[in-house]
Design a protein that fits this description.
Helix content: 25-40%
Shape: globular
Number of helices: 10
Structural class: alpha+beta
Distance between the termini: 19 Å
């Protein structure tokens, strides 16, 4: 006799950040009537990466042509602006400057111009006098202006995605166990003692996505290494009109210390990027020994450290020394003084690292029986969340169609 399984939903999404909520929204839009349940361990949406960044709508200029980051960021930026306008969410298309302050940076700046054009992004090259037309207090040898960059309130976007979807969203529901049976489905036990049964599991757990994958019985072959992004706010916000970035080092997925006038009118300075001692390690005092030990046990962490220790030393120095942080800011904004910088809340980037120590430089989505795992979705994932959500939704619905 065949046992009939009573499913609570068709698709069970783990994670109530912007990517998980965008996925739920996309599923219910593409296939009305599909039952979707979202499990989020926090009491509300967007409490981690989504709600702890500078709110930039990225243009897509930095990312390798043809990569998911490039395609989804360019498309996602336009869609995000349209979504915000449709639902009355605070946003602005400000444009931004990427400024070279040293001659050694000029070839990289010119390479960015070419990359932007390959990605279909209009850019304008500027000399020193033209820089001051946009930003009177900023100094540099050359710059490019990217007009499609903007800012918005991503927490409000995430809330709206949840409200506009037909999904059931359960907050305070941390996943503690996953029982996946390819012939029957997926059952998830939460910290509240509930058991939720679904036909397909979508893992959008961000900082914990690799752990959720292993709970489901899959070995993701990456580990999430948390990097804390430390921010200041500018006490004299009049020094900066919009968004100002340095020329990034192409060897790293971090963009360097930059200046961002947010939708709230405040100017955020940062982030500095240092290893965190917990997945939610928003300060040096937050230490979770089990998580830190698990991170240290991954061979890729040590290989990454050997490859990039000089870069890491610089980031650590700016973390412990405000004067060193100020020096980094002064390269772009000479008028800034140490007392101008006021500590602001930090964020943590969920960066996937391979066993060989390489930092995963693109969005990473993998499938297994009855599961889709989003295993690397740091910045610009918020910008790209609408197309990412559609792609994950397509895979989830395809999986449903084969059952």
């Amino acid at each position: 006799m065949v046992q009939v399984v009573a499913y609570d939903c068709d698709v069970l999404v783990v994670g109530g950040g912007i990517v998980g909520l965008s996925t739920a929204h996309a599923i219910t839009r593409a296939a009305p009537g599909t039952r979707v349940t979202v499990l989020e361990k926090e009491p509300g949406p967007a409490r981690h990466q989504t709600g702890r960044n500078s709110g930039v709508i990225h243009s897509g200029i930095y990312y390798r042509p043809g990569s998911l980051k490039a395609r989804y960021a360019v498309r996602g930026a336009a869609e995000m602006i349209k979504f915000c306008a449709e639902y009355g969410i605070a946003h602005a298309v400000t444009g931004k400057l990427i400024v070279a302050t040293d001659r050694a940076e000029l070839p990289r700046l010119h390479a960015l111009v070419q990359r932007g054009r390959e990605n279909g992004i209009p850019v304008r090259e500027l000399g020193p006098a033209q820089i001051t037309e946009y930003e009177p207090e900023v100094r540099g040898l050359a710059a490019i202006h990217v007009g499609t960059t903007g800012v918005c309130d991503y927490s409000a976007v995430a809330r709206q995605l949840g409200e506009a979807s037909e999904a059931e969203i359960r907050y305070g529901a941390r996943v503690v166990r996953v029982d996946r049976r390819p012939e029957r489905g997926v059952a998830v036990r939460t910290s509240r003692g509930d058991v939720v049964r679904g036909r397909v599991l979508v893992n959008c757990a961000g900082l914990y996505c690799d752990e959720v994958a292993r709970l489901a019985g899959d070995e993701p072959d990456v580990r999430i290494v948390p990097f804390r992004g430390e921010y200041y706010e500018l006490a004299r916000p009049s020094l900066v009109r919009g968004l100002v970035y340095p020329v990034p080092d192409p060897a790293f997925p971090f963009l360097g210390v930059h200046l961002t006038r947010g939708i709230d009118g405040e100017v955020h300075v940062g982030p500095n990027a240092v290893p965190a001692l917990a997945r939610e390690g928003y300060g040096w005092g937050v230490v979770r020994p089990r998580e830190a030990a698990a991170t240290a046990a991954w061979p890729g962490v040590w290989r990454m450290g050997r490859q990039h220790w000089r870069y890491g030393v610089g980031e650590l120095r700016r973390s412990v020394s405000k004067a060193a942080f100020v020096d980094a800011v002064r390269r772009l904004l000479p008028a800034v003084e140490e007392e101008d910088l006021v500590r602001a809340p930090a964020g943590v980037r969920a960066q996937a690292v391979l066993r060989d120590g390489a930092l995963v430089d693109d969005f990473l989505i993998r499938e297994a029986p009855r599961t889709i795992h989003v295993l690397n979705a740091p910045s610009p994932a918020a910008t790209a969340s609408l197309p990412i959500g559609r792609e994950v939704a397509r895979r989830a619905l395809d999986a449903l169609g084969t059952l």
